[in-house]
Amino acid sequence: MATAGAPARTVAPKIVAKGAQKRFPTRRGWVTAVESVDLEVAEGEFVCVVGPSGCGKSTFLRILAGLDHATAGEARIVPGSDPKQPLNAVVFQEYAIFPWKTVLANVAFGPQMRGVTRAEREAIARAWIAKVGLERFEDYYPAQLSGGMKQRVSIARALAHDPQVLLMDEPLGALDAQTRAVLQEELLRLWEETRKTVVYVTHSIDEAVLLGDRVVVMTAHPGRVKTEFRIDLPRPRDLTTTSTPAYAALTGAVWAALRDEVRAAMAQDAEEVRS
Amino acid sequence: MNRARPTSAWAVPAAVLAATLAAGFAFDLWTQAWWALLGVAFVCVVLTAEAVEGRLAVRHLGAYQRALALGFPIALLAVWEALATTGVLNPRWFPPPTQIAAALWDLIVSYDRFNRTSLIGRPWLVPERLATEGWAGVRALVDEAHLTATLGRVLGGFAIGAAPGVLVGMAMGLNRTVRHMLDATMSAIYVLPKIAIFPILMLVFPDPFGEGPKIAVVAISAFFLVAISTMAGVQGIDPVYLQAGRNFGANRWQMFRHVILPGALPIVFNGLRLALGTALIVIVAVEFVRADRGVGFLIFYYWQVLVTPKMYAGLFVVMALGVGLTALLQWLERRAMPWRKG
Ligand SMILES: Nc1ncnc2c1ncn2[C@@H]1O[C@H](COP(=O)(O)OP(=O)(O)OP(=O)(O)O)[C@@H](O)[C@H]1O
Ligand SMILES: [Mg+2]
Q1: Which terminus of chain A is more exposed, N or C, with fewer CB under 10 A?
Q2: Which atom of ligand 1 is nearest to the CA of A32?
Q3: Same domain, yes or no, for A254 and A175?
Q4: Is the pLDDT of residue A3 over 50?
């Protein structure tokens, strides 16, 4: 069930990363955030990336999003047939919804930047706000919302942009266990509806196996792809999926691959403290 | 905070307060140790007020806190009044508040024939002047007023300085080259007390005694403060908002309009508030030295002729001006940043 190595594919990939590397100049010399990432993602695939903290997951995602440049190799999204459709939208690790805009204005932001008329973009935004269950909060400002609600706004904003690829950076990382579980089911439901190509970074193995078609495990800093697992649990999934034996076997296998990397990352941190 | 405390919690400090005041009068301690008595009295009042708050219902708390905020200055004035009328404070230098109020009223309603000025420009004469002399008559009334002179200099200088201050600050915040070029110079000029360049400004303007240099010195003080805060505001924007803006396809103008401007606004308004305070300080100082109208002139004039109640009335007007202008700015701030109401 868990097979290492890239699966055979016939269609052209939607995302291509070949030896993607990112180094930052710092006062103490160059810091390598991402060593070399090779990854291909098919159209409509949901890929989860797990790896120890600091291994370069956010950096890799920022390169994919075009917010940063690779210092060597490449990581890019292959444009689709519609040149007007945005390539990607990011759900940031820190929400990053604008505190000075209402929920409605935040969700309508992407279409507004593309020059969609007010009536039209508000209709789009309202539809997505309803899908994430925030109808009553349209006119609220982010400061008046809970963490879970803010993250829903951030997800709705990304979906309202209607991107070819959705890039999500630990979107549920800061939430409590219950809110997280509810939002995981919502994400599954939304994905069934849209079937977008998704790259989803997470700390949680359970979450990665529950959501993804594939789980990519990265090594400790500096990051490379260590191995990957195909998750062929039947769709549509929901939280009951987590009580199946197949699910347990997969999370066990992913954890076995990740354990050494987390240990290595902790050893690095200890090293850093000592020096 | 701590609800349901025993009665003694407020009764004891209240009793100590009464005893202190009584002892003060009985043994004539006020003249020798008024500071000690005031200190003890203040601590007792705080303790009593806290204890009373602890016994109040929650829904009364807001009103109670407002009452405290209002009650303290009233109590302060009452103490001042008592000390000045009993002669503990020399009424020549510290005239009782009632006298100051009377002086203020006198300033409002009367015309100073010697200086040919009035405090607020005698607005009740407007219809009559309009009938006899037309708009020129009204203009003369506005020109004779200390209040409009100071207000005009503050608002004029503030507007002339703050608007380019915001622009230059934005440029410094957005463009690294501009920032590197200007930052050191701006910071150096920023710490210079602007009143020190007033003499230069008097040379620069064709009429050294006119309004030009006065408005200019206010404008320059406002400019540097606002520019430096605006720069800090732009640089302080969390980069993740800039990334979000770019990720959702904002072009340069959209970035400025939807991310940078609102993101910097809180700090910009901080700068505006500071600049307003500084503008008042600077204009009063300038009017001390070189003016024949203005509230600063009024204060200094009545100090020179030793009419202290009117001098204090002038101080009160400056205070009221500061409070009023700050309130105006806060109102603007709430309008400009509705998301900050919480
Ligand atoms: N702008 C930068 N300058 C210097 N070093 C950076 C920069 N951005 C990231 N790094 C370094 O690159 C490494 C990877 O960072 P990144 O944020 O991508 O990790 P991550 O896997 O997302 O971690 P986490 O799971 O904690 O979010 C870290 O060691 C970090 O210190
Ligand atoms: Mg990260």
Answers
A1: C
A2: 12
A3: yes
A4: no
> How many CB atoms lie under 10 A from the CB of residue B273?
17
Q: What is the pLDDT of residue B5?
A: 55
Fold designation for B141-340: MetI-like fold (1.10.3720)
Of B25, B66, B30, B34, give the one whose Cα is nearest residue B49: B66
d(CA B192, CA A107): 47
* Tens digits of residue pLDDT in A32-89: 999 999 999 999 999 999 999 889 999 999 999 999 999 999 999 999 888 889 999 9
The pTM of the whole model exceeds 0.95: no
A168 in the same domain as A113? no
Asked whether A223 and A53 are in contact (CB, 8 A), the reply is no
- Rounded distance, CA B81 to CA B102, Å? 13
Question: What's the average model confidence in pLDDT over B257-274?
Answer: 94
SS3 A228: strand
Pick the last residue of a domain from A117, A143, A162. Answer: A162
Residue A75 CA, ligand 1 centroid: distance in Å: 17
The ipTM of this complex is 0.89
Query: How far apart are the C-alpha atoms of A224 and A218, rounded to whole Å?
Result: 5
CA distance B225 to B268: 10
Domain identity same for A152 and A179: no
Asked whether the beta carbons of residue A100 and residue B263 sit closer than 8 angstroms, the reply is: yes
For residue A19, the domain's CATH number is 3.40.50.300
Whether residues A203 and A134 fall in one domain: no
Ligand nearest to the CA of A169: 2
pLDDT at residue A6 above 70? no
Count up the domains in chain A and report the number: 2
Residue A118 in 3-state DSSP? helix
The per-residue pLDDT for B224 is 93
Average pLDDT over residues A108-134: 95
Mean of all residue pLDDT scores within chain B: 89
Q: Where are the domains of chain B?
A: 8-85, 141-340
Residues A184 and A141 in one domain: no
Q: Are residues A73 and A203 in the same domain?
A: yes
Instruction: Supply the range of the domain harboring residue A125.
Output: 97-162
Residues with CB under 5 A from ligand 2 (ion): A 58
Q: Across residues B276-281, what is the average pLDDT?
A: 92
User: From atom 29 of ligand 1, which residue's Cα is the shortest distance away?
Assistant: A54
Q: Which of these three, A162, A184, A219, is where a domain ends?
A: A162
Single-letter amino acid code for the residue at A177: A
Residue whose CA is at the smallest distance from ligand 1 atom 14: A56
Q: Is the pLDDT of residue A4 over 50?
A: no
User: Of the given ranges (A97-106, A110-119, B41-50, B273-282), which has the lowest mean pLDDT?
Assistant: B41-50
Give domain status of residue A110, yes or no: yes
Question: Under an 8 Å CB criterion, which residues of B touch A?
Answer: 238, 240-241, 243-244, 246-251, 254, 258-259, 262-263, 265, 337-340, 342
SS3 B109: helix
- 3-state DSSP assignment of residue A99: coil
